[in-house]
Amino acid sequence: MMDGTAGLRGRPVADEALLDDVAAMNENDPGGMLRHTAAAGAQVRESAALAAEANLGILADEGRPRAVVIAGIGTAARTGEVLATVAGPRCPVPVIPHRSAGVPGWVGAADVVIAVSASGRSPEALGAAEAAARRGARLVAVGAPDSQLQSVAEGARAPFIPVPRRAPARASLWALTVPVLLAARALGLVKVNEADLAETAARLDAEADRCRPSAESFVNPAKSLALGLAGSVPIVWGSSPLATAAARRFGDTLSANARYPVVAGALGEAGRGRVGLLDGVFGGLGESSRDIFADPNDEPTGTRLRLVLLRDGGLNAEDDTDEPLVVEERRADAVQTLAERRGVRCDVVTAEGGSALERLASLTAVPDFASIYLALAHGLDPMAVPAITEMKELSNP
Question: pTM for the complete prediction?
Fold first, then answer.
């Protein structure tokens, strides 16, 4: 049996100097993950233009659906979470992300299925598209042009929005998300206008400039976040549904790009049990064993937790008032205080912008770059993940 560790590259300890050496970063990023991530704003604009060319208007001909199912896996599935979050609790129909092949048993002619696959060939999206066509559900497909998914959509006479495959799926979140949102807008489920898209793209452009490779670590928020996370077990919690979607996205990119184990989710759920991690052997218990005479500027020995708190503080989606989400903000304050008392270091990323979509962009942009910089600090190629390739080979003999 082949040794799975053969040929693995990288270093177990992060090297800060690598992040201030543009030539070294380019060498370790031959696939251009930094470049692809910096193109997020361009993805928004291109996908909006491509969606405008699709015949999404036919979706509204049969009126409001009973439910919307977004079928896909990985980043494609995250588009469903984004739609559910942007639509909010006042959305008139259920929005259901679905990660398995096929569709739920109740799906029928009264429903809409949006099948999403960056490659256009994932079994989950293809199976859902085929099942939707058989059951007479309205279908929208989003994926690579000239793919199997496009063929299924054309066979069902369903709208297909092509997403040019220029990057791995995990670097194509916005290219996949915008068509899903615009399909939902055609169904009357979300209020996303052209100004929202333009502001979101501009926000992503601005964050890409702040996080550019040539910006040194002390002025680059993504490099600073990456170095803070180096050698830790990251815990990423979102203070609101919007921030939770961003937290789970950060968990995905930290795992895939930097190969770090991550705990990610909603701060509200954390308060029912997972907040106890702050007391454990990687948290307060471990911090209490540190030498009280040690230099406070020295990095702690051993693995420690590092908390990343994504805070939204947006408008109250329940009643459209200008009051902030008071309960969620108080909970976030409480967790920061708990972490401080236990010596667990905490990074905070706060949402900015007017629309939900722009605020989401402000919460995902810096973490996306941080996951890549953390990989590069370890001498890892953030795009080429040997375990992913081997997994595909082993599961598809």
Answer: 0.92
* Tens-place pLDDT, residues 237-290: 999 999 999 999 999 999 999 999 999 999 988 878 889 999 998 988 877 665
Question: Tens of pLDDT along 288-332?
Answer: 665 555 555 555 556 899 999 999 976 544 445 445 567 888 889
Contact 246, 367 (CB under 8 A): yes
The two structure tokens encoding residue 55: 């015949």
Question: In the block, which residue shows the tokens 């208007």?
Answer: 57
Rounded Cα distance between 278 and 341, Å, is 10
Tell me the residue type at 299. Answer: E
Per the prediction, the chain carries an average pLDDT of 90
In order of their start, the domains of the chain are 16-30+211-388 (3.40.50.10490), 38-192 (3.40.50.10490)
More confident residue, 302 or 162: 162
Question: What token pair was written down for 233?
Answer: 């077990």
